[in-house]
Amino acid sequence: MSQGRIIKALAGFYYVEDDHQIIQCRARGKFRKDEIKPLVGDFVEYEVEGDNDGYVMNVLPRHNCLVRPPICNVDQALIVSSCKEPDFSSILLDKFLLVIEHLGIEPIIIISKMDLDEDESVKQYVKDYRQAGYRVYEISSKDNHGLEELKTVFKDKVSVITGQSGVGKSSFLNALDINLKLETNEISKSLGRGKHTTRHVELLKMYGGYLGDTPGFSSLELEMTPEELAVAYHDFAQFSHECKFRGCLHDSEPNCGVKKAVEDGKISKERYEHYLMNLQDVKKKEERKYG
Ligand code: GDP
Ligand code: ZN
Question: Which of 10, 146, 199, 237 could tie 139 with a disulfide, CB 3.0–4.6 Å?
Fold first, then answer.
């Protein structure tokens, strides 16, 4: 059996890419009974029938799956945050980072509209996030700043782009000068306009990699335990081995390596304060859940 990757799903067909060939496949009947349904991004085993037709036989294990749009095995998410209009919010960015990393997707931070950063108010944030180990790109779609460099991040990866509305995601994609049709809602004609929409999911070729549709996270709620949250701040890890208590949440515990790192300026104070806010948040949720 051959192996390939589903790059498009439309009207009951799966388009499987294998070594630059596209094979139009249907799913074998067994998928109707099974819980697991092939999705875009899946690595699959397929059987060829005829020239370019075939059947998806088996879905290989997934690394992750987005729900809306349904795309699996996403490698990285470009999180776009503008420095102005809307104002930069590190609280919001941290939530995106936590939710995305929790899905096992690598985040890449893009600070957009840098032409508006006259007072250089985001410079310190850029430093802090880099110090915390994140890849940060500063761009302006208005004067094409930083775009060339960004083209290289897509190679050999499946990427998605996310961020608050109005931060310049579409402008950025347009400035990259590609013909993207990101919103494709095809109305099924046989059922009449508006009655039924079939979602067409597709990975688009993008500078040597693939770009998925913009994911909408139904919420940026942190669905994790306090312990998971502490681990999710992976830049804290290099200091937490100095914490006196195992499972230290770096809050009111004495002899905490993370709090010391904040005092020594090795972790930004603001990043730590936002961590505490998120910690309160997930603690409250735990209490509500378990009483
Ligand atoms: P989206 O909702 O994230 O897709 O954001 P859009 O791409 O629609 O952009 C929202 C607004 O920001 C539009 O009015 C754009 O013209 C503006 N905008 C986007 N990129 C830039 C930029 O680099 N500099 C400036 N000054 N404005 C921008
Ligand atoms: Zn600690």
Answer: 146
Phi-psi domain of 164 (left: phi exceeds 0; alpha: psi -120 through 50; beta: other): beta
Is 99 part of any domain?
Answer: yes
pTM, whole model, 2 decimals?
A: 0.87
Atom 20 of ligand 1: nearest residue by CA position: 168
- For the stretch 188-232, pLDDT in tens is 333 333 333 446 788 988 899 999 977 777 678 888 999 999 999
Query: Could you tell me if 42 and 138 lie in one domain?
Result: no
Angle between helices 269-290 and 90-102 (to 10 degrees): 60
238 vs 131: CA distance, rounded Å: 12
* Best mutation site among 110, 161, 162, 171 for ligand 1 pocket (most ligand atoms within 8 Å of CB): 171
Identify whether residues 48 and 12 lie together within a single domain.
yes
Q: Is 194 annotated as a binding residue?
A: no
What CATH number should be reported for the domain holding residue 116? 3.40.50.300
- Nearest residue to 56 via CA among 34, 33, 24: 24
Q: Is 240 in the pocket of ligand 1 (CB under 6 A)?
A: no
Q: Which domain holds residue 233?
A: 226-290
- Please tell me whether 166 is known to bind a ligand: yes
Residues 34 and 122 in one domain: no
